[in-house]
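Milestone M4 deliverable, item 7.
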Amino acid sequence: MADMNQSPPREVPQRGLADSDLSTVMSKMTINKHQADPECENITPTSPVSSCVSMKSDHSMNPPLKFQEESSSIPGGKPASPVPSCLSMKSDNSMNPPLKFQSESSQVPRGKPVSPVPRCLSMKSDNSMNPPLKFQSETSQVPRTIQQERSHTSAPSCVSLKSNWSLDLPDSFNRPSGHRNSKSTEIHERKTRTNLTAISQSMIHAPPDSQKYSELPFKELCMKLKSSLKDRFQWLSDGLRSHGTCLSDIYTELYITEGESGEVNNEHEVRQIETASRIHQSADDKPIKCNDIFKPLHGQDVRVMLTKGVAGIGKTVSVQKFILDWAEGTANQDVHFILPLPFRELNLMKHQSFSLEDLVHHFFPQLKEIKFTNVTTHNIVFIFDGLDEHRLHLDFQNSMVVSEVNIPSSVDVLLTNLIKGNLLPSAFIWITSRPAAASQIPHEWISQVTEIRGFNDPQKEEYLRKNIRDESLANDVIKHLKLSRSLYIMCHIPVFCWISSTVLEKMLEEAEGKPIPKTLTQMYTHFLIIQTCIKKEKYNEAQQKDSEMIIKLGELAFKQLLKGNLIFYEEDLKECGINVKDAVLYSGVCTRIFREDFELLHSKGKVFCFVHLSIQEHLAALYVHITFSKGNKTVLNQWKSTKCAITFPCLSLTDLHKSAVDKALQSKSGELDLFLRFLLGISQESNQALLQVLLPQLSAFSSQSVQDTIEYIKIRLRMNLNPEKYINLFHCLNELNDFSLEEEIQNFQRSRRLAKTKLSPSQWSALVFVLLTSGNALDIFDLRKYTMDNTDECLQRMLPVVMASRTAEVRNCNLTDKGIQALTSALSSKSSSLKELKLSGNILRQSGVRILSEGLQSPHCKLEILDLSECDIQAEDCRSLFSALNLNPSHLRKLDLNSNPLGQSGIFFLSDALQKPQCRLETLKLFNCQLTSQSCAPLAEALKNNSSLIELDLSKNDLKYYGAQLLSNGLRNPSCKLSILSLADCGIITNACRSLCNALNSNPSHLTELCLNRNPIEDKGVQHISNFLSKPYCKLEKLRLSYCSVTESGCAALASALRMNPSHLKELELTGNQLGKSGREKLSALQEHKDYRLEKLKL
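Output delivered:
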């Protein structure tokens, strides 16, 4: 039995028990605790009557007896039970393993006495068993677990059958059924078997009041934990030890959607927000409520949840809300314990060693009151907030395997084993992270990924109205933010929403004619002044001290920004000459800028951070500007871009700006784009005047320096830049109050000369910026509005606009491979909103189809409608086209291939794509595609195996009788759900019409529209159609039979059919036929009669 218990036994005080008294102790279990001998006073009594133990609860059990180092043998006989023993009659797991004796002086007799009463075991539970008694070469002792005080009772012990602790888990938090890692699954199964054995023995041998030990402490502990977490998380921390803002008063639901796993996004987070603001909300993007974060999106159990979001987007507040709602009893009550362990606090323990049990007890000492192994049998959620802040070494490949909760190791090893499922494989884990750091956890260990996108437009207004109680003032703030597109976009970030409301509320209240902030730099400069002034009013401290601290904080901000750090520790502050005591004081009185994290309740170390990354970037830019003005001409040398940018001696402010612009352009991910905007904006005269309040020593620079910087940016805009880079340069021009390029483009638009004007590269960039920041919805991008000639260049230059649009119309534009490559880039972009692409009338050629196919097969491509009519797509091009659709089949709903010479071989590739179970194509247009009767065989097979297709157009193809007969084989299949079928001008004659109608009679419930125009079906063919039309199960609403050689006889048959089944047909078209006066009158009479639904009749 020793090998079953891998963890070392804990040393507990034990009382000796003589071997000769062993059988006496085991048989005399009725000793009252007040009468017991001191040596055995805590021995558990046995009830003389049957014990009624909960049949659902796993928590009504005691650990087994453990006897070690015995000097004599166990008596051979086993005393008869005075009452029935209830064991399972179905489970093999209801049997105890044999007793194990090691190094003993005598043998256990083989004989076993027969119980004088029947043995009745549980007929439902496999969980009614304990591990066996353990006898080893030790002196016989009684463990502490059976020395608990027990009161004697003569009545049955009835445990509650309604306790929340004895119920199965609800669906929302089902135990994960398995994990991708087979080793962790094996560990989980082994632990489960051990736990089940322990549970059953406790139920059999438990004393009457054992439930007091197992159930009541759990309830009490849970309530204590909830109370503690509620006190901690009901307030939004503002960095002060006193209470901040009540979370329930200000909380606004965030826009959370399913995220993408296995990808790294290293772009600057403001760039990500600006890109996300241009993406239309898709119908597939179903918002996820914070409390439903563990709800499976695809039917699979969720064990490890990763939530991504840029800094300040609301990850920590979402965690806080999730915990608070649980603690207040309003959500997720199927969870028994929530254990938040933020990374910023775990960082302080990176050099220490803990077992998981000790780590949890360190953070939650109230859980020490009960065995941690008992806690782990309940529904637990671990929350690790701030993966991007961790300074641990998470090694998922080579870290030591730890599978027991009492084995000590480093904190990073504990985390990797928890995430992989080696430790507590049934626990739920929630990790939050900024996008760039999310890849540190391999995607195979992540069950589901979600993404917090911040506030959508209605949520912005809701938050601002909650934060500004004066309704009129709130309206003014919202109105002002909407006037500045760049500010309103930034309000996607909740922290920026708060900064904006703080500044604008104060400034609009004062209403002294002061200019209201319109740029980011102005907004953040006012915020810095407001917070520092509040500090001075409270504490009346010297301005000089503020100035020194702001510069030191700026140095910290700049150095840590270059390292990518948002969280700082004492050593980081000391590196910048900041006394930790001063930092604590400053964080306590000016918390809206820089704060000490007081949420770290259980750690002795101090953690500091700026309220948001953008505040850090603003202070960093301020530090560089001030340091340069004081004579440090090499301050930017610390910023090393990915490539060698052009260097300047930086003798003037213009040189400094040029160097910063070039370094930003060399950066791949734009990680310092916002820093550049602030650096340039600070040089504006208006911002210089504002900063003089805080920094009297700040030197003013000439306006000529600013103008020189503007001209340099315009030169750079003529380069062939990545779209996101030139968009950021236009933001920089806005910070410098230059709008000349934008105004020029707007003049072109107003005069309607844009399409006829040959634009320069900088003008193309200005056009893109104007369109993206206009605030107008970009539903349709029509290439012909912007150019008449150079379509390829237009697509390349306007790629961000194409991606921000739902529909791209690029018809009859003489596209070449360069233009198609630009469209492919748009389709492959994860930030693309494209749902519809119209390319009709462009000769794609084989290379063009191949390039387009690369975009179509991208997992980021969400195209729903694709128009490739009249694109000269040949049969050999179909291989790459439909191969791409096979790789990404789940989005495309409508495909138009009209007037392309596909031929029979092309249809084979198409049929293969249609038969894929993932195919969701609903409309397929193959008008005039040079199909023959033989082409109908693969199409029929597709109809037999495709239930999504509802519209099929095969008009103007030479199908004839044999083709119609083959197609009928597919139409009669129950899997075929065609609603609209067009076979105009296909050479269908009378006999072919009979085959089609027979097929429709076999599967009649779906077809609502049938077009057989220009087929010589004659009156006999119409008679077959009329027979089908007369059936009550026929649901046909539109019937087109123009130019089908129909006469009066055919009209009579149709009229008769409609009289028999008048309730469905709404439109009937018979133009180009010799109907005669009688035929016309019969049909017209039906249209005029009130009992018929015939609304449209063309004769």
